[in-house]
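User: Here's a chain of 380 residues. Predict its fold as tokens.
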Amino acid sequence: MTAQDDAVGFSFRIDHQDVRCGARRSVFYTPHGAVDLPAFMPVGTQGTVKGLTVEQLAATGAQMVLGNTYHLALRPGEKVVAELGGLHGFMDWPGPLLTDSGGFQLFSLAAMTRINEGGAVFRSHIDGSLMELSPERAVEIQAALGSDVAMVLDHVVSLPAEQAAVRDAAERTVRWAERCRAAHRRADQAQFGIVQGGLDEGLRVECASNLARLDFAGYAVGGLSVGETPEQMYRVLDYTVPAMPEQKPRDLMGVGRPQNLLAAIERGIDLFDCVMPTRNGRNAVAFTDEGPLRLRNLKFERDAQPLERACPCAACRHSRGYLRHLFMAREMLGPVLLSIHNLTYYQRLLAGARDAIVADRFLEYQATKRAGWGLLSRTP
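Assistant: Prediction complete.
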């Protein structure tokens, strides 16, 4: 079995690690360009980041975008996407793309899903038709989509959960990863393994060690932000990240509060994705250095300030009062502008983190941001 970092067009380079913590500045090279890490990926589940053109998305500073195997396989179908230029051509995104395998959707739609060793059988949330997703099928779909990075199919469980269920899911995740690895054919597509194990240190370390032997091109921490507290999440990262290969990119799946991103970077995570910036934007919540602004509040009705004076995004050309008016009048421009702002804020936050790491001042950067958000100066 050959190393996946020998895949065509892929490499990973660590440029600097902060001398006082695990935060690291690195670069992940893909066939569609380099990604400066740590980085945040906007979520384009259905081949689009809701409400934004690719030009608007690029203007936020986004380098890499996430699409979803489950949703794209259901609609329009991976064969349609392949015929229309693969996911890059289909959505006209020239940069790197990562596709999630669908494991989280099988978890989130659990009422319609039955999981066994072969894979998952579920009802389509679109028309109720019976569908199957196995490790081999997840690899097949992602190969047709043509993403730069394909995630292996994993078994996610909600937390808290019975120990037996957590162990069963973690061990099945490794077996499914082996099958995904064996089914992988595209040299221009890297695979990432996903570490499961709930809140159990032994299971997490065991899962990470077993996946490391499969020599994936990168590794992700999965199964978090599914019911645990932030403190529990940070403890999981404290013992999981050191068990992951150092010379490979490290991804934290589906975690997206700004304070969570910085806490994870401190612990050595490189890559993130979450719907939080766009979902909150569509619901009139703007992320800023003074904390989230809930623009439907009456206090913003006559507020002439921009969301943030230093922000270059399209939303910050307008007053808070105007942005509030758009939501109160149910104008579609409001959700679009706040989605742009929130994604720009996340990209600026991560760019600042990269600069701080190189200067060996990441902990000071994190403390300053947390103080502005009204949080304690240190994470647990």
